[in-house]
Amino acid sequence: MASPATLLVSVRHQAGALRTLQAAAGPHPPRSPPQPSHTQTFSASRSGTAWHSLGEEVDVSKPGGAQKLEEDRKAPGKSPKEGEESGDLSPLSPGKPRPERLAQPGLARRETLREMALRSKMSRLVEATSQLVQVEQTLLLPLLQQHPLPLHPKDSIEFRNICSHMALQREGQQFERDLHEAHQCLKTIIEKLIRSLAVFPSDSYIPVRSALREILQNLLAM
């Protein structure tokens, strides 16, 4: 049977794992610098030319060009010339995908779904760990002061070690394996606590067990 000091040791390791998980769940650095957009690329290739309306250009390097630009800006109701550079500057039609979005649509979709699944699983793990630490400190610790319970602090130590190893990976297959192992380890910790509460001599354990079951359900939610 475990004393309150044993529970505090377990909570300390779980709290350390929680801090590691919160850091690992932060935004990842970009893998490559962002590519210039279609409009930016086109504008860069037209350096030295002033664009003052859609489809119309004035070369300020020629005599009178700057004056014509200023006059055109002041002229009310002036409409852009039709047909000039329309193929490059005209916006895409509504619902028409951009060319870069057409490249390997299946691959991009699979990567997006995979990243969403990992982010959701990590989020559930962080939330469940935070809730478990709170329940142990506020509900379970007072019960241990009245009646000792069988606890397993080694599981919490293993959980912290898995989270620390996972934080070093950040991505890839090893990261996914560590994330799965962390889920299983936390699941084991909660299930053992629920079974331990079954030997409590009074009904005061019911709120704790109910809270633990809710945490477990949220952790395993798909």
Automatic annotation (TrEMBL):
<feature type="compositionally biased region" description="Pro residues">
    <location>
        <begin position="27"/>
        <end position="36"/>
    </location>
</feature>
<protein>
    <submittedName>
        <fullName>LEU7 protein</fullName>
    </submittedName>
</protein>
<feature type="region of interest" description="Disordered">
    <location>
        <begin position="18"/>
        <end position="109"/>
    </location>
</feature>
<feature type="compositionally biased region" description="Basic and acidic residues">
    <location>
        <begin position="68"/>
        <end position="84"/>
    </location>
</feature>
<dbReference type="Pfam" id="PF15760">
    <property type="entry name" value="DLEU7"/>
</dbReference>
<dbReference type="InterPro" id="IPR031510">
    <property type="entry name" value="DLEU7"/>
</dbReference>
